[in-house]
Amino acid sequence: MRRNLSREMPRGSLPRLQLWQRGKFRLGLSRAGVAVLRTETARGAATRSGAGLFGARRAGADASAGAHARTSSSVPPNPALLVAGKPAPAFIERAWPDMSLRATPDELAAQIGDALDEAGGGALPVHVTFGDDLVRYFIVTPPPNGTRFQDLRTAAEVRFQMLYGESAAAWQLVADWQAAAPFLACAVPQRLHTALHLAARARRNCLVSTVPNFVGAWNRWRRRVGGAAWLATLHDGALTLGVVEGPARRSRLAAVRTLMLPEQAPPLAWLHEQLARTALLDNVPAPKVLHVHGPCPEIWQQQAPDAASAGSAARDASGAANHGEIAVRACIDGRAVRAASSDARLSPAAQLAWDSLAR
Length: 359
Hints:
By secondary structure, the protein is α/β, with parallel strands linked by helices.
């Protein structure tokens, strides 16, 4: 005879588990702060009792909230992001005025954890995107006859020290390890990487992925970048260029270089000159097309000017076949990227969190 366990179990003896809850946290980290975007399915949102449209407390909504309201904020859901039957994402942002070297992993973990707690959602999986201003990119040439992983890692550490004049001990070093061809490596501050693990472990979150902004864009768009095109990310006033060389089917990433914009939307002639100089520096042909991931200025997507206005450097590198003109195309597909790129209210960290929706 079957027993009715629900009748034999006293009430309150077991916690109520929401096994069907689904969703994830998307974190954006920059030097200015941290942004948390919580997305979930309609079924997961329906299980929350007392949760509003965001499912999280809107900090800064009340002027009497005190100091907490000055360090975090919530942005209302953009109508362009709402889909029938799906809840609006919960968005929380916290600023750290100066993520200096004096900040310990515990201090950074506390700020990241506070943002996760404020966004609500419990122990959801976490996906992190690092701003390019926090990452160091470089190309490593594998050593001759190097077959072991340790050989490749040693070559990357030596290359890092040659470029930046310091040991890689304080950095989390990851790469697309290749023994037969040059490969991309990137380094993130170790204390920031440790802080993420501390914050996730304390709240029983699963840290699923940590991706630099340029690497995420490259993984998403590389199949659309031909041999005569480059890929770039534009974020927080910095243009990170992925220099591509070789024919379309055998193209490879030859270098990654970061340019600081002199103003919010420099003229197209300035961009052409910078691309031409970068091509000369890396001894590769200048691109015919530049794919930009991020809030691409409208002036860059307009008709290119005459070759005379693009500067002598652009003419020398591009040659007569290109006539000094480089087409700029925005890498935008999906509601989240379009809305986030056009929203002037979003901070650099928030931009990273919203952009990650497309990946």
